[in-house]
Amino acid sequence: MMTMNQPASAISQTLDLEAVRRDFPILSQSVNGRPLVYLDNAASTQKPQAVMDAISDYFSTTHSNVHRGAHTLGDQATAAFEGAREKVRGFLNADSTREIVWLRGTTEAINLVANGLVDTLKSGDEILLSHMEHHANIVPWQMLAKRTGAVIKVIAVTESGELDQDSFRELLSERTKVFTITQVSNVLGTINPVKEMVAAARKMGAITLVDGAQAVPHGPVDVQDLDCDFFCFSGHKLYGPTGIGVLYGRYQVLKDWPVFMGGGEMIERVSFEGTTWNECPYRFEAGTPAIAEAIGLGAAIDYMAGLGWHQVAAAERTLNERIQSWLPDFNGLQVIGTAANKAPVVSFVMDGLHPSDLGTLMDQQGIAIRTGHHCAMPLMARFGLPGTARASFAFYNTPEEVDQFFTGLKKIQRLFAE
Questions:
Q1: Inside any domain, residue 1
Q2: Distant-in-sequence, close-in-space partners of 204: CB < 8 Å, separation ≥ 6
Q3: Cα separation of 289 and 75, whole Å?
Q4: What is the CATH number of the domain that holds 251?
Q5: Partner residues linked to 211 by β-bridges
Q6: What are the start-end ranges of the E strands in 264-383?
Q7: Could you tell me if 16 and 90 lie in one domain?
Q8: Euclidean distance between CA atoms 387 and 88, whole angstroms
Q9: Of 159, 230, 368, 385, most Cβ neighbours within 10 A?
């Protein structure tokens, strides 16, 4: 799933992109008088009609709170909600739904894990992460380190935008109590060898967490194969709604993890003499959950499975090949992150143009890209840049849109050369 440098011809069956794009209503609109070319998928993917229909159907026919109602609607809502949890379990190949915790997103999931270590870490313990992490996988650990006296160690990134494995081996030690790593860089698109790194960290006795936010749009994840303690992602990266995310926790670890938030549902029994907690995963799901959003995420998983993940991967490889065909002869364009194995993401700067100006000029052509530091200021600093422009592609983008993207950049180059 997470190897993207195979030839597209390895898959004989291809997606009908014209039909697929009709499933995503937003892709048919125009922006600034031009057909929309949406290339900000690393920030958030667009939603198929099937997801919107599932959410609408829930509110139209099934809406009720879950787990508590002694009536038909309550039973139906609970069945749909827990059915979505089972779909996530299957997508991740988790052993049990008791390992699947609903949260608001990746950020909350990482904070839950970090907060659970407040009473465990001590001064001198080490938290190992990398230079390419999203702020969501840096700041919670900084907060934890400040409270416990733990020390953060940072794995270096090479000029090509890959994790420096020598740096990893040098920093990993018996003092490493937490190892947390992104599976795919949101800035560079680099696909990291997380399975091997997790195995090395676990040998040292570290708790391991994989930030899978940028991995899940590209295919299912096998958490049992990764053998990590925790894995998290956000639904809106996986063609699902905002406001819903998932934390997978290995049951033997999760069952004893400190609770994160108190309230209804996460309790077994409450009295003024003391309170006992519910079983996993409900002990981490205080209050009324994001029911519609969870159902929508389940629908997104169904939709993508219906397309066929092999076909999705083949479409993305085709996009990567078209991207690579443009780069060798594109003067004045510096690509940041040139790893051999990467998602279809192009992070770049252009001579004489600030990224934010470039983003505005591309938007005038109907092309939506991202500019700035991409919530990865340390990575920008490592490359000596205040920010970049980033085009991130999804399976529903076409090779012709790749051409439009690069042609748009050349138009801007010519404009400023005059």
A1: no
A2: 172, 173, 174, 176
A3: 15
A4: 3.40.640.10
A5: 182, 232
A6: 267-271, 274-277, 333-335, 345-350, 367-368, 370-372
A7: no
A8: 34
A9: 230
List helix spans (H) across 33-189.
Answer: 49-57, 72-92, 106-115, 139-148, 165-171
Alpha helix (H) residue ranges in 93-222: 106-115, 139-148, 165-171, 194-203
Cβ atoms of residues 245 and 234 within 8 Å: yes
Pair of tokens at residue 363 = 């938007």
**Catalytic: which of 228, 232, 280, 375?**
375
Residue appearing with tokens 């899940």:
216
Please give the distance of CA 266 from its chain centroid, rounded to a whole number.
26
Residue 15 lies in a domain: yes
Give, for all 418 residues of the chain, the pLDDT tens digit: 455 444 333 333 689 999 999 999 999 999 999 999 999 999 999 999 999 999 999 999 999 999 988 899 999 999 999 999 999 999 999 999 999 999 999 999 999 999 999 999 999 999 999 999 999 999 999 999 999 999 999 999 999 999 999 999 999 999 999 999 999 999 999 999 999 999 999 999 999 999 999 999 999 999 999 999 999 999 999 999 999 999 999 999 999 999 999 999 999 999 999 999 999 999 999 999 999 999 999 999 999 999 999 999 999 999 999 999 999 999 999 999 999 999 999 999 999 999 999 999 999 999 999 999 999 999 999 999 999 999 999 999 999 999 999 999 999 999 988 6
| φ, ψ (nearest 5 deg) of residue 195 | -60, -50
Tokens of 91: 């997508």
Q: What is the domain range of residue 255? A: 52-304
From 267, 282, 304, the end of a domain falls on 304
Answer for the pair 347, 390: CB distance below 8 angstroms, yes or no.
yes
Beta bridge partners of 38: 368
Q: Is residue 290 within 8 Å of 104, Cβ to Cβ?
A: yes
